[in-house]
């Protein structure tokens, strides 16, 4: 059930609110982010699956490559409205028209700092030019949203006049823009409520003060029915308000559905891979830790009632719950994890294993599944014969094509294989997969270089998570050589996964 506020503050659940995604434009303006046309197409398709109402595909005035990317998105014939960002120039509108977009976001100055200092015009001339540009765009069949740039620092009387002028000229809607993340919910509500009396209004908020979501919700409460967002909160400086956070807040707190929420995590992963911007583990909704429990109290409570320490089920946003191992893990968490791995242990043994896990965590170690299973084997005395063991590894990267060869012991049979790749690690992993054949059909879910020590004796720690069927195992290995650390971690993970598989391992050439 939604958790609504008091009657005076509640955003009515019968409101229709839609989301506009500007990841492909404002999100791409984040430092170091550059999306190819193919990546923009992939993200646009993911946004369509999530049910985003408007996709700002880019800024046509940027250049020929950007126009090609926008055209690729418009060619998808999506249900979402596809738009282009335009400056207050007729030439920008013409370039957007050449991309066959459905509409434009016409950005005009609204604060005196921008009207006089940036553009070098007057308030009166700005009103006149805005009307001319809106009429030109609508005459050419475009849907038009006029954004008052730096609206949060504008004189509200002038901002209202500017937006009224745009609507009178034929604009479909106006947008209150907190361009530099300057303001708070009260100012946002005051501005949006005044604009909403004139016509349909949107909100464009940034997160410089950490108030992106608060300002977006305040805008909706004041009458905005369209919120500009970016996936994962990408954008200039501290970023735009995060699409996933606005969507879940409106759904969970106010019972207003804007998106197919179960698509959010896949969407976040697609954008993260395309942009190279990793997701912070503590990020709301889509961070690794959002549905991960380590604390003994929280784990015990979650095992008894999955709603005990979570505001909503992880499946709501396409996630799964995870129990993590560490110094705070209690017996309930250890017992549950052992059960997942098919390990039987009595009550006293579980208590001893939990104590050792805590001691390992106290030494600053991140406790992996492999650590837990090794401790369990020691405590229970249940020695396990390895299925796969790494006997030898050779990797070279000096030539044009990195190569690697491995020698493995697979159930007592020695197997040798070689492989090539984009680097020595990739080549070594290919060699392992070649040696194991179908036994290496496990999926590499994550690969992370956790730590590198300094000095001439530097040691790198590699952590991998591999999954096979419905089981996954996380293993960390530390070595002076990243290739060896990577291969040892992968082989150990495969060994753990294969140890509980009753199927005999086929020869590598089968």
List keywords for this structure.
16 helices; three-stranded antiparallel beta sheet; 510 residues; alpha/beta; eight-stranded parallel barrel
Word description of this protein:
It contains 16 helices and 16 strands. It is elongated. Residues 294-301 have low confidence and may be disordered. The protein is an alpha/beta fold and 510 residues long. Helix 5 (123-139) runs parallel beside helix 6, helix 7 (185-196) packs parallel to helix 8 (212-222) and helix 13 (347-362) packs across helix 14. The chain has helices at 37-50, 64-74, 90-98, 112-118, 123-139, 156-168, 185-196, 212-222, 243-254, 264-275, 296-304, 331-340, 347-362, 369-380, 424-436, 482-499; strands at 18-21, 54-58, 81-87, 103-109, 143-149, 173-178, 201-205, 226-229, 292-293, 322-323, 388-396, 403-410, 413-420, 443-452, 460-468, 471-479. The two termini are 53 Å apart. The chain has an eight-stranded parallel beta barrel with strand order 1-2-3-4-5-6-7-8, surrounded by nine helices. Strands 11-12-13 form a three-stranded antiparallel sheet. A three-stranded antiparallel sheet has the order 14-15-16.
């Amino acid at each position: 059930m939604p958790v609504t506020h008091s009657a005076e503050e509640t955003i009515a659940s019968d409101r229709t609110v839609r989301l506009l995604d500007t990841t492909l434009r404002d999100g791409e303006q984040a430092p170091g982010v550059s999306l190819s046309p193919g990546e923009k197409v992939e993200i646009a398709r993911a946004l369509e699956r999530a049910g985003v109402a408007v996709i700002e595909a880019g800024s046509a005035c940027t250049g020929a490559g950007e126009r090609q990317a926008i055209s690729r998105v418009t060619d998808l014939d999506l249900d979402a409205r596809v738009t282009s960002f335009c400056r207050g120039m007729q030439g920008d509108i013409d370039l957007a028209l050449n991309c066959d977009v459905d509409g434009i976001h016409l950005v005009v100055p609204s604060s005196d700092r921008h009207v006089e200092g940036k553009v070098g015009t007057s308030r009166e001339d700005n009103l006149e030019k805005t009307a001319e540009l809106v009429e030109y765009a609508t005459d050419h069949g475009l849907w038009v949203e006029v954004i008052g740039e730096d609206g949060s620092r504008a004189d509200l009387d002038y901002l209202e006049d500017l937006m009224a002028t745009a609507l009178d000229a034929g604009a479909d809607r106006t947008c209150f823009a907190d361009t530099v993340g300057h303001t708070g919910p009260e100012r946002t509500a005051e501005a949006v409520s005044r604009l909403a009396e004139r016509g349909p209004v949107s909100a464009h908020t940034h997160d410089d003060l950490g108030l992106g979501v608060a300002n977006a919700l305040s805008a909706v409460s004041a009458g905005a029915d369209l919120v500009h967002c970016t996936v994962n909160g990408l954008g200039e400086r501290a970023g735009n308000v995060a699409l996933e956070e606005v969507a879940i807040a409106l759904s969970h707190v106010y019972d207003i559905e804007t998106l197919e929420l179960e698509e959010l995590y896949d969407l976040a992963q697609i954008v993260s891979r395309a942009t190279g911007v990793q997701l912070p583990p503590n990020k709301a909704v889509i961070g690794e830790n959002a549905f991960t429990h380590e604390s003994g109290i929280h784990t015990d409570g979650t095992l008894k009632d999955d709603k005990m320490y979570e505001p909503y089920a992880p499946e709501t946003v396409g996630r799964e719950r995870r129990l993590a191992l560490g110094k705070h893990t209690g017996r309930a968490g250890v017992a549950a994890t052992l059960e997942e791995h098919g390990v039987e242990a009595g009550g006293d043994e579980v208590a001893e294993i939990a104590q050792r896990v805590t001691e390992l965590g106290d030494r600053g170690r991140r406790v992996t599944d492999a650590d837990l299973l090794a401790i369990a084997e020691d405590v229970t005395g249940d020695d396990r014969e390895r299925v796969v063991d790494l006997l030898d590894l050779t990797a070279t990267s000096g030539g044009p094509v990195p190569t690697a060869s491995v020698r493995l012991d697979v159930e007592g049979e020695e197997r040798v294989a070689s492989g090539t790749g984009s680097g020595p690690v990739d080549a070594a992993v290919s060699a392992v997969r070649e040696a194991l054949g179908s036994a290496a059909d496990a999926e590499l879910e994550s690969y992370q270089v956790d730590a590198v020590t300094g000095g001439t004796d530097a040691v790198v720690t590699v952590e991998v998570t591999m999954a096979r069927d419905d089981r996954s195992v996380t293993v960390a290995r530390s070595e002076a050589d990243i290739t060896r650390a990577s291969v040892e971690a992968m082989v150990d993970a495969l060994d753990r996964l294969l140890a509980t598989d009753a199927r005999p391992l086929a020869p590598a050439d089968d």
